[in-house]
Amino acid sequence: MTSELRPDAAPARHPTPAGSRMLPILRSVVPVFVVLAAIAALWYTALVPMNIRESLTQAERAGAVVDPPNAIERRDANAIGLVLKNPAYIADTLRQDRPRLPGPDQVWRELWATTGAMVLEGKGLSKRSLLYHAWVTLSATVLGFAIGTVGGIALAVGIVHSRVMNMAIMPWAIASQTIPILAIAPMIIVVLNSIGVTGLLPKALISAYLCFFPVTVGMVKGLRSPDAMQLDLLHTYGASRAQTFWKLRWPSSMPYFFTSMKIGMAAALVGAIVGEMPTGAVRGLGARLLAGSYYGQTVQIWSALFAAALLAAVLVGIIGALQTVTLKRMGMSQ
Amino acid sequence: MDPRMKTDSPVAAARAETASPIVIAARKLDLTFQTNDGPVLALRDVNLTVNRGDFVSFIGPSGCGKTTFLRVVGALEHPTGGEITVNGMTPDEARRARAYGYVFQAAGLYPWRTIAKNIKLPLEIMGYSKDDQERQVERVLKLVDLEGFGNKFPWQLSGGMQQRASIARALAFDADILLMDEPFGALDEIVRDHLNEQLLALWARTGKTIGFVTHSIPEAVYLSTRIVVMSPRPGRITDVIESTLPRERPLEIRDTPEFLAIAHRVREGLRAGHAYDE
């Protein structure tokens, strides 16, 4: 050891892999685009045979001659065979109103028409706007996430500090997650409705029901992460349990906390969407999904799905950013 | 202000020595761990007294109970038989009276606290005022030669500096006794020599009583006024060697015949305890 003090610089960066001469930005962008292109290719490949029968039926109704001409024969025929026999109608499969599988371009157009376009018209939060429905789902998600996270942490603190709670709570927490949320969601809605609780809270509670578990499991692990030596050290100082918690356990659990919150947030969103389904499908992304399936509006279903995915990505991204900033300030970033 | 702070001056240290010379007294100490494979005799019939200002090293192979004994002194383990007093109290009372600072093998600094904040940790827990905290941090950073590093984070320091910071943390609340469990075991030889020298200087300046667990014969001989040789199964003391070396010890003292004679006796003691049998 020549110098005892390490350079004051930021943590060492990993060396660039040999042979990689790309600009840093390209290094991350290229793989993303490769994956996107692969998904799009797979999507369009699946789309054509899935939609070909409908295209041929419409063409036949319009008076064209297709092969085979008989609808019943077409029903029993192999879809890929139909595509190969009627290549002229491939383009039609991409342009249906109610396709079995809409193309990414159709989903994108629907997404834009129900979000950006409506904002430009000044109707951004009208009931036909996807932004309005996303907002409804978001508010239930965030409230449910808050309840679930606080509850999850409270349970974890209890489990870590009390042997009785450790043995009494953990089995129930695990059991709660084995019940399908689809089965229990309508009951929560109905029971709460009967005691006069309606609106946001029932959905948020379903959200919280899914969200608390990863937070509890992660935080139990995190609060137990200080090693025996660290706990011994505090013992020699005569630290109280509260001091041990605030000065050691809580800061040590931060990496686990953020990871748990990411999972909890995704779970909370699923909970909110599921919670919207048994209410009669009036408002929210779950309602859009359900209404779309009632009326065979596949484009609407897919656009609602994408909206939910985007929402989840944004929410988890926010937690990720908080994680980076917090752990960096704590000197715990990897 | 804590009156014990004055123990840093040689005069006060001398006065303290006149009070009661015995700091740690163990009589017929037994400690048996109950494990799944049956009872393990970690300590058996351990008798030892440590006087104020002593530097006592505990040496022996793994499983000889040297760390366990230190942990008993620090009230981290409780004996199953015999008696032990620390400053005339039970170890638990001594712990509550903040009689000792403990240094572990790993520095165990909190990565989210700066060095100064790490040193303040025990002070915060013990309820020192902000001004006292600042004063103590400044004082102990000087003691371990880390002035100016208070605002650094642990990852910015080398392993040796981190261990010095952890010693500073143990000194921060002015305990009379410093218990050190292989504090330099994870460091390389060069850094270790350097820290040994610094530790002797610190001991001379503060007059603390030090209990020091080590695997290394040269380290034990170089540092100690007394060397306690222990052997395993059951963990027991096989020899207690009073060092004839002067208190002032340059590193070169390790090449003198006197040093080598003591080292030889330690090695003999370890062999006599069948310490190397497997």
The CATH topology of the largest domain in chain B turns out to be Rossmann fold
Number of discrete domains of chain A:
2
The second-level CATH architecture of the largest domain in chain B is 3-Layer(aba) Sandwich
Mean pLDDT of chain A: 84
State the total count of DSSP E strands of chain A.
Answer: 0
Estimate nothing, just give the exact number of structural domains of chain B. 2
The number of helical runs of chain B is 9
Radius of gyration of chain A: 27 Å
Helix content percent band of chain A? over 70%
Strand content of chain A: under 5%
Report the β-strand fraction of chain B as a percent range: 15-25%
Within CATH, the superfamily of the largest domain in chain B carries the name P-loop containing nucleotide triphosphate hydrolases
Describe the 3D structure.
The complex is a heterodimer of chains A (334) and B (278). Chain A is mostly helical. Chain A folds into 2 domains: 77 residues, no CATH class; 200 residues, MetI-like (MetI-like fold). In chain A, α7 runs antiparallel to α8, α10 runs antiparallel to α13 and α13 packs antiparallel against α15. The N terminus of chain A is likely disordered. Chain B is an alpha/beta fold and 278 residues long. Chain B has 2 domains: 179 residues, P-loop containing nucleotide triphosphate hydrolases (Rossmann fold), CATH 3.40.50; 68 residues, no CATH class. In chain B, 37% of the residues lie in helices and 24% in strands. A 6-stranded mixed β-sheet of chain B has the order 5-6-7-3-8-9, sandwiched between helices. A 3-stranded antiparallel β-sheet of chain B has the order 2-1-4. In chain B, α4 packs parallel to α6. The longest helix of chain B is centred in the last third of the chain and has 18 residues. The relative contact order of chain B is 0.17. Chains A and B meet through α11 and α12 of A and β5 and α4 of B.
